[in-house]
Structures are given as structure tokens and as C-alpha cells.
What does this fold into?
Amino acid sequence: MENKTNSSVPKLYEAFKQSFDIGAAVNPHTIIQAGELIAKHYNSITAENEMKFASVHPTEDTYTFEQADQIVAFAKSNGMKMRGHTLVWHNQTTEWLFQEADGSPVSRERLYERLKSHIDTVVKRYKGDIYAWDVVNEVITDEGADPLRPSKWLDIAGPGFIAKAFEFAHEADPKAQLFYNDYNESNPMKRDKIYNLVKSLLEQGVPVHGIGLQAHWSLYSPGLDDIRAAIEKYASLGLRLQLTELDVSMFRHDDLRTDLVHPTEEMLELQEKRYEQLFNLLREYDKHIDAVTFWGAADDYTWLNDFPIRGRKNWPMLFNESHEPKGSFWRVVK
It folds into this structure.
């Protein structure tokens, strides 16, 4: 629990009320274990996995909304905004979607029917409760000349599935803000591919309202100049920007250590400086950035534990494992 003896700890989201919302990714476990912390410091939440295709629609005739409903209820009871994540992704999507009963691939038309039915059901269920959706997630390749990642969506439907997803989502909730969401979004090569995709969608009249920069960053990369260039390039499209999955890993990409039980003082100092630099930069662009959502709430629960190195702990958040504010917290709220 957050240290109750220190009532002087300011609310994180209030420090940015003139700039952008501050969000956290949550799940049924963390809203129990860290509900007090989340309700105090964040004014927006995103379901970590509970609204993904495999979670809410495991078979064609079955929807399982219990955990997603629980998260929406937590947001409503605490007066928080709610982001929806995600409608179309190459991961965590069940096989039935792409297959006929005999196991053969479905036609493009059948895939679109199933996609429209899914989006109608999910988006309309939370209409008025969810103000923004990550409609399409991670369709851009990290490397090479090809713009789009190989997937069953692409194999069956061709690139048109991207526009269809946005069109279906807009029909289901015309007031919802619709985002394209991706990682490595500040890498110059991938940045340009994301820009070109979204620009093309806009030129086709597709209802895209924003770009989600996942912002899974580290103490060492990406460089501030690359982040700035990405923000400016995406903002030039006239869209809203959100950081959707922010965390700051303690490790370089090629650091394979698994022996640390606690972060070193050097790591904590570097993280303080890094977070301060990042939020100073984000404040400069607050006329374009609506929200900054962390992919978690505190260091006791983070997807970066065991990823990408099994057996390795990480400490990427502003609050420690005891839900107390770290030096990084004080640097960003000052």
C-alpha cells in the first residue's frame, strides 16, 4: 500500500491537469492489490489484456466480459476515464476467427462479417464508458522494406482490414476516439512507416483520430531527438497523440543480467534523470498530447519482469514495489 503516513504526496495526475491525463494499465489483480494507489494517482485506465480478442471472444458464440466489466466498473466508481485496448491485433486472437468449421481458411468476406460482429458487440457494450479505442495494434514491420507485418489478417483480407476495423468501430460508436497504436514508434524507419500508413488512411477518408505511441522505452533509448521528431511528424497529420504504454526499463536491449534483486543506485539516478527529461519534453507538446498512460502502476507488477529475459526483474515505474513514490516521481511532479 502507498505510505499512508505521507499525506503530502501529491496526486500524480493533478500535477499534469493543465497538460494531459495520466493513465495506468490495470487488470483484476492489480485493481485489488494496488487499487488505492491507482485511484489516487491516475485519472485514466486501460485494461492490460481483458479486452483483447482472445479474452472477450474465445469462441464464435461465446463472449466473456466478466473481467472487462470489472475494470470498467472500477473506472466508473473512481471517476476515471477508460481507454479500450485493442480490437485488431496479430496476437491474442483465437484461431476460430480465421477458420471455417473444417479448418480451411475463411474468405475475406466472412472474416469481415466476423470482425464487424465482434467490434459491434464489444464497442457498443462500452459505448459511453470507453472514450477511446486502440482499434488496430502493431501492424507495421520493425525492419525491412515491407510496411506491413505478416499476419493471418493480411493473408486473408489484404491491407484493407485496417481501414475496415476503423470504419466498423466508428459505426459502433461515432463519438469514440479511434487510435492506431504501435511500439518502436520513435525509431526513424518505423516512424516513417507508421506515418505513411496513417496518412494513407486519412487520405481514404478512414476515421482515424489519433496515434498511440506505446513508449516502451529504457534508460538509454530512444534518444530525446528521435522522440521529438516522432511527435512532430505524427502531429503534422493533425491527429491527437497519446503515449499508451509507457515504461522505462532499467536495462539495455543487450543486457542479459538476471542477478539483480534490487535496482542499483546508479540505475535509480539514471531513471530519475530520464523520466524528468521525458516529461519535460512531453509538456512541450501538450497541445498535441491528450494522455500519457503507464503500462502498469507500480514496480510490484510489470510485464517487464521475465521479458525479454526470463528470471529477470525490472523496475520501470514511478512507484516502487511497496507503492511508495520513487525519486523519479518527485522529478516529474516538481
Remarks:
- The longest strand covers residues 240-249.
- The beta strands are 21-26, 44-47, 81-88, 132-137, 177-182, 210-213, 216-218, 240-249, 289-294.
- The two ends are 23 Å apart (CA to CA).
